[in-house]
Amino acid sequence: MIALNIPTFEHSWQGSDPVLLERGISVAASVARWASEEHYAVGLVANGSFPDADRTIYLGAGRRPDQVNRILEALATVTAFTTSAMSTALEDPRHPIPGGATVVVVAAVMPDELAGTLNRLRVEGHRVHVLKTSPGAWQAPLDRVPVTDVSGTMAVLEHEAIEAGIMAVPGGVMP
User: What DSSP string describes 3-27?
Assistant: First the structure.
């Protein structure tokens, strides 16, 4: 299960960094494609909503031939508006995480409540891994949840894409 945490700043009143948001969407899409190519069942939860809907983006894990396309289409609808905290989305009783499922969280920020949820999921037997898309340290205690910082790699790829003329210079906060 891929979990895209949409906020790019600690507090919603701080707004959103469009570069970090797009970076998170790109990383989530890359993980979905990889998982599909490796024939894993893959799903998506994002704490935003589909257009004209008031529900969190959720696609249950599956191996259907069109599953990766469904996930990519859902990611294409993501905006900076969030419907709930990611911890709430991951603990939603209407969409329980299947037993033994791996949860890959893509996040620019790590609120304490999300760290608590991830620690609980790990204790409950889920494999949990975090892909960090922003520079700087997080203060939230992630006990034994592994975190891979992809922000530097993504920044290099973004710079190369700008230099090659295949990506516009972003108007966001990140360089």
Answer: EEE---SSSGGG---HHHHHHHHHH
Residue 102: which domain range?
2-163
The tokens for 82 are 């969030």
> Which segment of 45-54, 60-69, 73-82, 113-122 scores lowest on mean pLDDT?
45-54
Helices 18-37 and 67-76 cross at an angle (nearest 10°) of 180
Q: Which amino acid is residue 109, in one-letter code? A: V
In this prediction the pTM is 0.92
Provide the CATH number for the domain around residue 55.
Answer: 3.40.50.410
Tokens 């570069």, residue located: 19
- Residues 147 and 168: their CA atoms lie apart, in Å, by 29
